[in-house]
Every structure is written in C-alpha cells, then in structure tokens.
C-alpha cells in the first residue's frame, strides 16, 4: 500500500492526526487527478463523528497515520469526469462513509454496497489504486461519482453534513423495520446525542410515539420540548424501567459506551427488536433470558447504501429534518474533538472548512 500513487498530483491543504495522541494539525498532501468516473468537490463543511475520535487515537488498532478524518462532507462540484452524467459543475453534493466497493458482488448488484466485503471507507481505507484514502478535514476531495449524493436545495449545507453519517445510520433501521410508512408504533431511542436526536426527528416525522431512554435526567426537558419526544425514561431508575415493561415495539440503541442490553430488552413487547447502531470498543452485556422469554431479537446496522442515503436526504428535505449543529473553525478541531468525547455538544460539531463569510 502507498499513501499516494504517481497519479496523485494535486496538492491539498488539510488537517491530520499523526500519532495516537489524536492531536490534529495542518497537513499538506496529494490527491489523485480527476478520473473519468470522478467528480472533484470543493469542501464547504465536514461534520465531526464519534468515529473520528476512535480513528485519530487508534482505539481500534487499525489507524494508518497520518490520518485525515471526516466522512460527513458537503461541498460543490468543480470538475466532472467524462463518464459522469448525473452531476454537473456547481452541484451541491455530499460524501459519506463510503469511497469504493467491488461493484461486482451480490451486495453491490442489489444496491447494498455498504455490506460489500471489499468496501473501502472515505478515510483510513485503501482505494482501488492502492492509495490510502483521506477524508473531509481538507479543502478538496476527488470522489467516484457512484459514492456521491445530491444535497437538496432546501437543506443548509452545514446542517446537512452530519446527515451523511448520523442521518443515514438511523434512517436505515427505520426503513429496515418498515417504520417509514406504518405510523402509530411505539419506538424507543437509547441515547440522546448526535445519532439519537436525529432518530427522534425521524420517528416523529413518520408518525410514531417516541420514547427517549437515557442515563441523564437533565436531558428530559430537551428531549420533549425541543425535539418532540413523547416520553422519557431514566435508564438508571429501576422503578421507571419496570413501569415501562413490554411497552415498546422497536428500540434503536445509539450509545457507543459500554452498557448492558438486558434492562433495555425488557422494555420491548413480545417479538420486539433492539437495533444497535452505536459502536462500543468493548463487548456489550447480552443476557439470554430477556430474549428467550420475550422472543425478542437483537440486530445491528451500519451506514446505509448510496441509494438509501440519497433517499434519506430527500426525506429530510420533505420533512424539514436537519441536524442540530455547532459550527467550528478549523483551528477549533481539537477543542471540538475533546468536547465531543465528553458529550459536550448539542448535537453535532460541523467544521467550516471553506471559512467563507
């Protein structure tokens, strides 16, 4: 593997971590020339995902330094390859987690390329040419057009950026469980953060009764008054948990910290499903009895396909859903990462990459 190839001739300014301290500093690197299937994107905004923290600190032991994070990217197309027909110069576009797949396997043929065995990510991946991928903490990106989506005109580019990860990560489970057009279900959202706050908005837009399950009593007013949740359960309160026994049809768990799934499972009705989208760095506690005695299921879901991602953005435009964000400048990235690690943000940081007035 190589950081670049002879085709990487474009000099780009960005921001990278160089070791497991996770400290982000300015970094100049090379990107490939725009190929026939590529589009070149001037990056305007890039969201900061909790995954970025894990990568810059090498929490998962897979980081290839220097790492340029960022997979919640919005910007404008400045160049279009000769074989690209669905995009033109000036288009408002987004790039999420995916940079490449094999394009040939059953998953790719069925428009589920996010589950391809050869999937490569927008950063810290290995592209088709053998180069290491660098993400959206940079001024410019060259991307294969098959992994780019259009951002609807009604969505602000800054608040749309986190939808490319947080939005699609919670939208896909809603679709997978037929919750888009079957209103009236009782759903639970575990965790009120970057993922959870968008999940509440989707749940209400699709006509469901939404209960937030949180360890933080201080978040109840926010969940109900600002985000529209119908109910709130403090998960550390045994009496509250007991009072909601077998009341929910579906639960989406967005928490990335280690926790036990047993108490949460008891909130599900018979045959209910608990879907995991958080990514704790240690195994979760999963007792068997709550599953056995309730015929309950525990499933996982990652980011969605490119087709789903475009669909999700169009749904957000229709229902006026966007992320609640705090915009930071490029010299505030380290501070933002530190605050995100302490859950000190409502609810997603977005970097103003272009820095235009």
From TrEMBL:
Co-factor(s): Zn(2+)
InterPro entries found in the cross-reference section: ADH-like_C (IPR013149), ADH-like_N (IPR013154), ADH_Zn_CS (IPR002328), CAD-like (IPR047109), ER (IPR020843), GroES-like_sf (IPR011032), NAD(P)-bd_dom_sf (IPR036291)
Pfam families reported for this sequence: ADH_N, ADH_zinc_N
Highest taxon, organism lineage: Eukaryota
GO MF annotation list: mannitol dehydrogenase activity; zinc ion binding
Gene3D superfamilies: Medium-chain alcohol dehydrogenases, catalytic domain, NAD(P)-binding Rossmann-like Domain
Keywords from the UniProt entry: Metal-binding, NAD, Oxidoreductase, Zinc
GO biological process: lignin biosynthetic process
Record's keyword annotation contains Ribosomal protein: no
Enzyme Commission number(s) from the entry: 1.1.1.255
Domain Enoyl reductase (ER): 19-351
Biological role stated in the UniProt entry: Oxidizes mannitol to mannose. Provides the initial step by which translocated mannitol is committed to central metabolism and, by regulating mannitol pool size, is important in regulating salt tolerance at the cellular level.
Family under the similarity heading: Belongs to the zinc-containing alcohol dehydrogenase family.
Protein name: Mannitol dehydrogenase
